[in-house]
Amino acid sequence: MAEPGTNIDHTYPEHPREKHRGPVVLRRSSRDETSTTDQRLLDTRGPSDWVHTDPWRVLRIQAEFVEGFGALAEVPRAVTVFGSARTKREHAEYELGRKIGAALVDAGFAAITGGGPGAMEAVNRGASEAGGLSIGLGIELPFEQGLNPWVDLGVNFRYFFTRKTMFVKYSQAFICLPGGFGTLDELFEALCLVQTKKVTKFPVVLFGKDYWRGLYEWINDSVRREGKINEADMNLLHLTDDIDEAMQVVQEAYQAWEDTH
């Protein structure tokens, strides 16, 4: 290092030896690899850890988008319905889900759900029984048993964010039946996307006044009153117990979307 007050020493160390792995440059200790990419690709006897590396995950993610877009490209106008996987078949909410699925078909929409049991199964069942298109977008979870038997067109995903993209891209509205963290996650993601104009003319229906009223009032009385959202943002949410009213909201939003396209 040059002494204080002297000219800076502009000499550089010798150019380090390097190894190229496609566009990646490896130097010094990073060069110490005992095999090449081709060897790891062609040698089936080696460890399988490579399928869990981040570069490989990028390809998996890409493949999920390609598969999802390909499977859903021809889907007609559709509405996604969320709800709890824990809803029992004998519960009133299950029958409600069947009626909503059938109502969507009668209104000319395909029904999309997360493809699981409970409320999702109920909506898929109602849509399928009504002769409409029943779609399930499943997710790899440790506690769910794959797609329910009422799904006519199903796609399974590894990654939540890929699946969420499909929900939003191929839906004209969300209807939220009573549900837990998964339903809340999708609810607030949809609201955020609409508020920030990432998607337009996208209503969110909270179906079940007794269940959702506390959340709705908290958003209005605390979040809006504190200025964290404005009055117009409250208009993104529709709280109802009436299937006909929910269908009207969906139809009006779809008509408004058509008028701008």
Runs with pLDDT <50, length 5+?
Answer: 1-6
Please tell me what the overall shape is: globular
The averaged pLDDT comes out at 85
CATH topology: Rossmann fold
How does CATH name the architecture?
3-Layer(aba) Sandwich
Put simply, the count of helices is 9
Cα distance spanning the termini: 66 Å
Biggest β-sheet: count, sense, barrel?
Answer: 7 strands, parallel
Write the topology of this structure.
Blueprint: E1 18-21, E2 24-27, H1 37-42, H2 54-72, E3 78-82, H3 92-106, E4 110-113, H4 119-129, E5 134-139, E6 153-157, H5 160-169, E7 174-176, H6 181-195, E8 204-207, H7 209-224, H8 231-234, E9 237-240, H9 243-259
Parallel strand pairs: 3-4, 3-7, 4-5, 5-6, 7-8, 8-9
Antiparallel strand pairs: 1-2
Helix pairs in contact: 3-4
Summarize the structure.
Helix content is about 45%, strand content about 15%. It has 9 helices and 9 strands.
Structural account:
Mean pLDDT is about 85; it is low at about 1-5. The chain is built from 9 helices and 9 strands. The protein has a single domain (about 65-260), classed as Rossmann fold (3-Layer(aba) Sandwich), CATH 3.40.50. It has helices at about 35-40, 55-70, 90-105, 120-130, 160-170, 180-195, 210-225, 230-235, 245-260; strands spanning about 20, 25, 80, 110-115, 135-140, 155, 175, 205, 235-240. It is globular. With about 260 residues, it is of the alpha/beta class.
